Amino acid sequence: MNPHRIPTLKGRLDVLCNLLLAPVTICLMLFTRPVLYRLFGVGLHFVDILNNRKWDVVIAQCKGYGWINQATLKVTCEHRPLDVHAILAMVWIGVFGFQLVTIKLNFRRFHKMAGQAGFALASMNTLGSLFLVMHLALYPIETASNKPLLFAPFMWFVAMDMLFCLKRGYDAIGKHDIDEHSLWLYRAFMGSFTTPVLRFYPLVVRYIFGTECVRLNKPRLLIGAVFVGLSFLFGATYVANRKVLKEPFDGYLAVRLVVCLLGVVAESLFVKKHGGTFIQGVHECWKVGPDNYTLRDEL
Prior knowledge:
Elements lengths: L8 H32 L6 E2 L4 E2 L11 E4 L4 E4 L2 H25 L3 H31 L12 H24 L3 H32 L1 H6 L1 H27 L6 H24 L3 H11 L11
Antiparallel strand pairs: 1-2, 3-4
């Protein structure tokens, strides 16, 4: 029996909503700039008001449409599979955020109405992600940095995991099991949040150590961000299980643990081969200064 389980259904729903508020807010902050550029062609440069200078620069101005990747500081232009994936992801974030508001305000009718469309949009988002992964495997984006072998399995796992969670959440509605429905939808969004983590983590590192040090360690960036994403996913699952389930260590958490350990193994092999992690390289660059720093391995 789990002594940390919250006794009331309302209390458990409140905890899940509160745990989701930060990821939803981060997504809205993280993707506002790319959406502005996609829709209006603005937002290539943001100004650091405190230091009175531009704090990052991207390499391209699209003639048509494009998306800014705030992790690699580059723009991908006229890439339709990425465009479909990104638009569906933005819609999924918006609908899910609206659903959180309806739960907090106890607007059950609006929650049910939005949920009917939300499941369809979320499923389309998952299929869009799978299509993008397959397309990138066949036709890599020219402006993308070299990706480790872990990247494609990671993206495939995120998409399939989200599809599985959505199916379980949808089935719970038929059983009128609000507890199970809310937990599986929590898992679905947290799983999809791992891809924004790949972009948010480098932004935090850039803010602390500087953009130039991140640029110099870019070959190590993706594998480090994947490891952070997998670790976050396991932690988020464990916290929710501890507050909601009678037995916190269930089969789903076990799968998360195994995947996280695989991420640890992949990160360790990468470090052994290339002489350091992304965060180690950025910290070393920050200590000696970008002008005096050289990446130990060309990767």
